[in-house]
Design brief:
Elements: E1 2-5, H1 9-26, E2 31-34, H2 41-52, E3 62-65, E4 67-69, H3 80-87, E5 99-100, H4 109-122, E6 128-131, E7 153-156, H5 159-165, E8 178-181, H6 184-189, E9 192-198, H7 200-211, E10 229-234
The protein binds 2-amino-2-deoxy-6-O-phosphono-alpha-D-glucopyranose.
Length: 235
Amino acid sequence: MKVIKVKNYQEVSEKAAYLIAAQIQLKPDCVLGLATGSSPIGTYDKLIEWYNQGILDFSAVKSVNLDEYVGLDGTHEQSYRYFMNTHLFDKVNIDKNNTYVPNGMADDLEQFGKDYDALIEQMGGIDLQLLGIGNNGHIGFNEPADCFVAGTHVATLKESTIKANKRFFASEADVPTKAITMGIKAIMQAKKIVLIANGSAKAEIIEKALAGEITPEIPASILKLHKDCTIIYCD
Ligand code: GLP
């Protein structure tokens, strides 16, 4: 594991974007595992900048997103599909048919989870997975729990997560209480993982995850078992 502590958010974004850009340049038809939240916005902005400069070509890139709120459809402004379209997909030449975000409106979410995992496998797995981290150590929406969950599944959001994410909604009551998230297996099977974080609360949980034992109580702690994981953060 490579842990890089940098000065500020701009540096976090730039370093993460370099790793993603290198992945695209080395394998133009790579599978990117993508994340939402405020942390990756700067990284996506850099990638868009390089695309506009003719440095990056997304035409063969495929993507799978980590998670989606249950009950929000892709046109809802707080859905993660909407986030990905507005913060990245609409601004580069990726083929939207090659972009996958879990469907939080699926009738049978359990079956959807199985199909999503099968899809990732059919794509040959994830070449590079970008991750953020929750204040409680969650990755995707794999919340602190008694055990790790391998497959894509429905997660009940912790109160701390709902509170952290309410800033994006009109009120706390509007934050969905459930989400569908990629499980630990697809994340850990990614060939490369890049986790980014910004701010003192995130720095604290990262340092706790790295210092302590591997435990589902701090989901990000499992990343210590990954062979090619880079953590880039600032406080
Ligand atoms: C959400 C997402 C995570 C993300 C986390 C941190 O809960 N499900 O994938 O990493 O929030 O978000 P932010 O970067 O906005 O702090």
